[in-house]
Amino acid sequence: MSYWYVPFGIIVTVLLAGFMIINPTLTIKSAADGIDLWFRLVLPALFPFFVASELLVQFGFVRLLGWLLEPITRPFFRLPGASSFVIVMGFTSGFPVGAFLTRRLLEEKLLNIKEAERLVSFTNNASPLFILGTVAVGMFGLPEAGYILAGSHYLANLTVGFIWGRMASDSSEKSNSPGPQNQDRQASLLQVLRACQNSHTSIGKIMGDSIRKAIASVVGVGGFIVMFSVITRMLQALGFIDLIAKFLQQAAVGLHLPYSLAYGLSIGLFEMTLGTKSITSSEASLLQQLVAVSAAMAWSGISIISQVMSIVSGTPIRLSFYLRSRLLQMLLASVFTYVAYHVILTKRLVEVFPRSLLMSPVHYNPSVGAYLFPLLAAGIVLLLACLLSGVVKYAVSRQR
What is this structure's pTM? Predict the structure, then answer.
């Protein structure tokens, strides 16, 4: 096992400590910005999801959902039906809910290690509220950009899951999978219902455990946000971001990247939101900005990658596999965004929204009711998935 990260971690820690001593004002300001971001947006968005998802796992809903949706998840992703819960919640509630739920299913023995590794690789996404509201309206000032970015982002992630599923050994995983199998649907349903019944303990204990786990998870996420806010500001002050931006310009010389766009991508390498904001403020063309933002959201930033890996720490899920998935999604999302731009944002539409309007700042402050959108979207997707699963099971029963 390689321990290259130990000296690297020591160097970063020493630099960070020195930066805090030399620039205490800048350190406090960047930390305060991180806390403000966590308190205003992340805490109200993630905490209810963490509590609700933990309750659904404790009450056995995930086992029942797994029985219902096995006919969909098995052929598409070669994953047990319980993974559908992670897919839906991860796609509607944003980072890092997918990692949190994947670990819970692994602890409940509803997934094996290989399945958990593949599942976590494509269920950590930017939330629809972030893409359609904060990015499209607040940064671009162009709602149509949100549909391009969201469609490319989610389609790329689903494609990653499909590709890894095709490369997996279906026969071996199916035999080792702890989830309900297809050979006897009635017997497996009875087994699932018994498991749900056995999972019921004191409602007070379940609620208390769910809240405690949710608090620990959301506070951990906040810690990463604050620290990477300081680290990103330190890298900017020391000139590292500038060096990375110049390297990107040289490496992608054929793409003619403006320096400001390369600088935004360099920030996005570490922190997605700050990088996205910097990209949309550059003088690059709209197409270049959209592709760059799509790539930054697919990568998600070292900050979010660290959050995901901290949540699944202690499991055999590999960082290298997760990073390969992020790189694959970056490639796919960039291609999808490029194609969607030419299909949706035609020349006529761009002329309706001149660059002066696109680059003007638009302040977007989501209301409390806006956080209900991911919950509603998750419910609708689950309902549609159950209906589709019923159609699949009916078609299979007709063939027998």
Answer: 0.75
